[in-house]
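4.2 Preliminary Data

To establish feasibility before requesting continued support, the project team ran the inverse folding procedure on a target of 1155 residues. The structure was first converted into the token representation described in Section 3, and no sequence information of any kind was made available to the design step. The complete token record follows.
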């Protein structure tokens, strides 16, 4: 039966493949773009001018290859060959969309939407620079294949590689004994090796591996110490790998130890020392100490004279051909009178005169381009310039040494006023055609440039002067004039790049006659000389070129500037490429536009794996390429195309994780990829494609290692629901594959580990409603929890975790909650009529787990609080006083509060009136009769709407005034009569005399002891006045309720000597074993102490005016004075004048002497 099924399936597969091979009819050509939407992905947020985004594919079904395109976004433009470029700089935020239009052969417009996506923002599944047709995109999305690659864990593919086998202990060829260590001749690994990595360099073997299972490891720099991980060893096979390219200039050698440990038997071999030397490659070109050397040579120097010594260095290995430098002169400018006029020693770099003919007057400067090349002149090269200034030798008689000696020089003669040749009249000024003076002239200075003349000099003595910038203004003194002859001189070489023209005025003054001529304006233009070399905007340009770029593709644009005069041959620059490194696969591989500086691909063959980088030396020369030149480097990095798929190192993984943990690490998977490390084509992207419908897991990479996929829990796993999960994980790159490749997958089996879970209350927060006067012992609610660990059959017990007022108790086994002490809706622990307690439920596991539930009791109000008056004192006039409004409050809720009622009690009924205001929430109090000024106690009984009443007292101060404005007068009032004032003054004088008399007697009695009248710490008794004495013979209406007004209207005062017995003690944290936790220990216990109602000071109501109904103390009359003479009362003399009488009575003193 099985054979029959296999046969049927085989036939179906053959038919399917055959149908796929049947040729389809060639579709009819339809004009338009190659895709319904174009998507371009960029890695940089900021796009500069000229950035190329890619080609736009368009066809009108003719032979045409160039088409007109139009973009409705002005930041982008499309060339006729379809190249989409940035027309104006722009920043891409997430993405930017626009439309491109073109026209077919019949003039019909065809449009396509375009989206430019920043690399940091993924757009669906579009990863290509240019989106292809959706049929092409879907071709390889779901193919799977396991690809075998070399790695430190998978070594079978490298076992056939010829590498040294390093054995322990036994004396083998190449080893020699040194103390207890085996010394191995150093291994050699070339730097900059292209891999593939990890690259096998040796195999470590122990002779014990024939009898035991040996595990190998390495320690030391390059392995377990910085730089970490450059070398690794397979712990089973002993294969040793280098994991990345080495750089001899960074580190020339590595030394570490190899260890061999037998399975279950400890160390199998003594550690063996390994030294790895890095073999130098010629990867550093010579670098000159200066980019430009300056020197001087006398024009009369004979042949062989030493001029200057140049020097270059090479970072490659010393005493090696890679650093053996030879010097040469590439060019000499100018080449006259002979070429070469100079020669260089190829070994020392000394430049000497090679021929005669130096002439400073003809050729004042020579520019030499020198080269330093390693490999004895055949390797990498560096260049520099040597500018030699030919110094003066006195081989020509000086024609001019003083200003007066230059009168025979042919210079313009500038005349004032009269119309002479070359002058034209303009208003009152005579305009002279500008003078021209070449920059950088070698003099001699001062150099005569013109002569100023006035026709008045025939009859008068004329003095000449000039004013303006360059003469009397900054820059000062560049031009001067001889005041007698009118000769005008330039005093120093001019520089056109600093100032290209000067304008000043010439003045002529007659001797003794004042101004002889009107001032004349002179303009001096500085003639440009080619004295500035082109300078590149950057010394090194960096660019990228895709390895699949076709010929003619634009790569980068370079630019140089020349400070010489614009639109002049001296600043007319031409570009050229001097060298290309490496020259393979073809030279020139790149071409440059000599005018624009745009570098393009000139030929095919770019291959990142073979030649990842190209260095071009470019030149910019003025005089249309024949003059002074400057050089720069262009480093082009060949970017990778994603032509290698990542592959898992294992086909399957197994892991376990505890339930209920979120973001818990499950397993780490690793992959390998043959593309450029750390590039988008190398970085891995992991996805869970099957086995996780509930989204319980996530997979991601870290910033430090894009080749490791870390699976962790996104949600809490439940052992009771599922004990195992099987995941299918796929891996791709950050960018799509450049060619059709299969996507690698692996299987991850995750086992869920059961853990003890805390009981769960249902609901987590329970609300009940109860009266606040619910009796003690009454049931509140039964609040229970269930244990989710159904397989463990555990018992749940209950306890109260937090009950701030101590009102509740809970049954340990049933969870029934009862009232332990009376509840109070107006208590401080009740918020918005709700009291909150925390209930705990614990299982009986070896390590119990506790769950919590919140019980919220909605307290129903009862009428247990009488209303009170807020104002405790008032002031008013004894005549025509204004009514006083007193506020009434009640702690109970609205149902047991307003409207209130009020009544007066005791003597207050006679002198006062009281009524409720219109809203029945306030009392209007007023005098019924005129009272003398003083203080009165008004007793008011206030009741709520249920009749619960309480007496409140108000202290009323009646002042001697009239009306609403209350003014209480003192004893001395301005405007009193004169006798009253004199009486007051007399009383004051009498008091002063009495004080002086007391001081006199005190001084006599105390002698030298000085006791002040009043001590600083004197405490005087206060006299209290009680305006209610209780009933008398004539007071038949005395109300005993007055005695209780203090109790009924007591203030909120607490005492600190009674421990509250209705609040539980909080839980204090025990002292931690870890000293680092002491800070948290102090903070937690401080908070607990702050909230501890049982900690001192203890708060309870303090009542001052209630003396109780009786006393156990005896009568005070039973107290008498002691007649014993043993008691010493002399200390009373030291207690001040207040104890003087006692001191006299008991201790003796002056009073005894007077008797």
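Position-by-position output of the design step:
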């Amino acid at each position: 039966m099985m054979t029959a099924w296999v046969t049927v399936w085989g036939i179906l597969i053959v038919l399917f493949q055959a149908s796929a091979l049947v040729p389809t009819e060639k579709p009819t050509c339809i004009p338009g773009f190659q895709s319904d939407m174009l998507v371009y992905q960029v890695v940089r947020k900021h796009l500069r001018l000229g950035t190329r985004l890619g080609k736009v594919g368009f066809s009108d079904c003719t032979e045409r290859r160039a088409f007109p395109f139009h973009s409705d976004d002005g930041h982008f433009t499309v060339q006729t060959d379809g190249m989409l470029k940035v027309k104006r700089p722009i920043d891409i935020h997430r993405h930017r969309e626009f439309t491109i239009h073109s026209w077919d052969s019949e003039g019909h417009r065809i449009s396509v939407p375009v989206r430019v996506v920043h690399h940091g923002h993924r757009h669906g599944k579009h990863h290509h620079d240019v989106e292809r047709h959706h049929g092409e995109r879907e071709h390889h999305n779901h193919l799977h294949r396991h690809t075998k690659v070399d790695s430190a864990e998978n070594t079978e593919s490298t076992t056939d590689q010829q590498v040294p086998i390093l054995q322990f202990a036994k004396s083998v060829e190449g080893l020699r004994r040194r103390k207890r260590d085996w010394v191995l001749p150093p291994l050699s690994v070339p730097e900059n090796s292209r891999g593939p990595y990890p690259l096998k360099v040796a195999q470590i073997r122990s002779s014990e591996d024939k009898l035991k299972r040996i595990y190998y490891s390495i320690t030391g720099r390059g392995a377990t110490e910085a730089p970490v991980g450059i070398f690794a060893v397979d712990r089973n096979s002993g294969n040793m790998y280098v994991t990345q390219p080495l750089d001899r200039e960074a580190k020339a050698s590595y030394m570490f130890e190899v260890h061999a440990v037998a399975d279950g038997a400890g160390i199998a071999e003594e550690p063996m020392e390994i030294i790895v030397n890095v073999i130098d490659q010629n990867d550093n070109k010579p670098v000159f100490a200066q980019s430009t050397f300056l020197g001087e040579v006398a024009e009369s120097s004979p042949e062989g004279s030493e001029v200057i010594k140049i020097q270059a260095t090479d970072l490659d290995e010393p005493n090696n051909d890679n650093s053996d430098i030879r010097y040469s002169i590439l060019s000499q400018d100018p080449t006259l009178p002979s070429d070469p006029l100079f020669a260089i020693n190829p070994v020392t770099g000394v430049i000497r005169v090679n021929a005669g003919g130096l002439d400073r007057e003809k050729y004042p400067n020579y520019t030499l381009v020198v080269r330093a090349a390693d490999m004895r002149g055949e390797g990498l090269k560096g260049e520099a310039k040597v500018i030699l200034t030919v110094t003066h030798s006195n081989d020509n008689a000086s024609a001019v040494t003083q200003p007066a000696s230059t009168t025979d020089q042919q210079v313009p003669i500038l005349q004032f006023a009269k119309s002479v040749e070359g002058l034209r009249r303009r208003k009152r000024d005579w305009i002279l055609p500008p003078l021209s003076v070449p920059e950088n002239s070698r003099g001699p200075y001062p150099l005569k440039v013109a002569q100023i003349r006035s026709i008045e000099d025939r009859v008068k003595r004329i003095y000449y002067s000039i004013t303006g910038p360059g003469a009397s203004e900054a820059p000062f003194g560049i031009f001067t004039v001889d005041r007698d002859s009118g000769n005008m001189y330039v005093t120093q070489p001019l520089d056109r790049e600093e100032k290209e023209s000067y304008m000043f005025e010439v003045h002529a003054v007659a001797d003794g006659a004042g101004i002889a001529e009107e001032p004349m304006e002179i303009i001096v233009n500085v003639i440009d000389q080619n004295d500035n070399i082109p300078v590149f905007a950057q010394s090194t340009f960096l660019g990228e070129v895709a390895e699949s770029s076709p010929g003619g593709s634009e790569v980068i644009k370079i630019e140089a500037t020349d400070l010489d005069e614009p639109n002049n041959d001296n600043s007319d620059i031409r570009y050229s490429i001097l060298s290309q490194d490496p020259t393979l696969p073809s030279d020139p591989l790149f071409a440059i536009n000599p005018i624009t500086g745009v570098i393009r691909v000139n030929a095919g063959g770019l291959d990142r794996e073979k030649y990842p980088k190209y260095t071009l030396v470019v030149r910019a020369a003025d005089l249309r390429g024949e003059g002074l030149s400057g050089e720069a480097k262009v480093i082009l990095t060949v970017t990778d195309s994603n032509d290698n798929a990542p592959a898992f190192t294992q086909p399957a993984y197994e892991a376990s994780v505890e339930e209920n943990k979120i973001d818990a690490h499950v397993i780490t998977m690793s992959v390998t990829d043959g593309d450029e490390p750390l590039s988008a084509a190398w970085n891995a992207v992991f996805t869970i494609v099957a086995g996780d419908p509930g989204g319980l897991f996530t997979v991601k990479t870290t910033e430090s290692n894009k080749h490791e996929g870390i699976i962790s829990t996104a949600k809490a796993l439940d052992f009771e629901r599922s004990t195992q999960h099987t995941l299918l994980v796929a891996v791709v790159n950050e960018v799509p594959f450049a060619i059709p490749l299969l996507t690698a997958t692996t299987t991850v089996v995750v086992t869920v580990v059961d853990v003890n879970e805390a009981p769960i209350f249902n609901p987590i927060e329970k609300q009940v409603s109860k009266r606040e006067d619910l009796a003690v012992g009454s049931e509140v609610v039964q609040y229970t929890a269930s244990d989710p660990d159904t397989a463990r059959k555990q018992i749940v017990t209950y306890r109260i975790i937090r009950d701030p007022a101590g009102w509740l108790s809970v049954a340990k086994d049933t969870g029934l909650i009862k009232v332990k002490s009376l509840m109070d809706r107006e208590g401080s622990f009740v918020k918005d009529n709700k009291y909150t307690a925390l209930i705990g439920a614990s299982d009986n596991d070896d390590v119990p787990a506790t769950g919590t539930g919140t019980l919220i009791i909605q307290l129903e109000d009862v009428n247990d609080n009488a209303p009170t008056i807020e104002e405790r004192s008032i002031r008013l006039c004894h005549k025509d006083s204004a009514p006083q409004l007193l506020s009434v409050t009640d702690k109970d809720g609205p149902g047991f509060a307003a409207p209130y009622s009020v009544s007066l009690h005791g003597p207050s009924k006679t002198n006062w009136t009281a009524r409720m205001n219109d809203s029945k929430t306030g009392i209007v109090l007023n005098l019924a009769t005129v009272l003398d000024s003083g203080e009165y106690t008004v007793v008011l009984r206030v009741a709520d709407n249920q009749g619960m009443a309480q007496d409140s007292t108000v202290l009323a101060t009646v002042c001697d005034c009239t009306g609403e404005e209350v003014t209480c007068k003192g004893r001395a009032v301005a405007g009193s009569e004169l006798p009253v004032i004199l009486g007051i003054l007399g009383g004051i004088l009498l008091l002063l005399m009495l004080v002086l008399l007391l001081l006199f007697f005190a001084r006599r009695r105390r002698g030298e002891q000085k006791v002040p009248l009043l001590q600083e710490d004197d405490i005087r008794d206060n006299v209290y006045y009680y305006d209610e004495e209780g009933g008398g013979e004539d007071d038949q209406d005395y109300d005993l309720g007055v005695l209780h007004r203090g109790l009924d209207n007591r203030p909120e005062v607490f005492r600190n000597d009674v421990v509250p017995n209705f609040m539980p003690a909080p839980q204090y944290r025990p002292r931690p074993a870890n000293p680092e936790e002491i800070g948290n220990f102090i903070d937690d216990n401080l908070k607990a102490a702050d909230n501890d109602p049982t900690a001192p000071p203890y708060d309870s109501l303090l009542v001052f005016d209630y003396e109780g109904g009786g006393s156990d103390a005896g009568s005070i009359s039973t107290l008498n004075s002691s007649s014993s003479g043993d008691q010493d009362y002399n200390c009373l003399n030291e207690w001040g004048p207040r104890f003087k009488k006692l001191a006299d009575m008991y201790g003796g003193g002056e009073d005894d002497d007077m008797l």
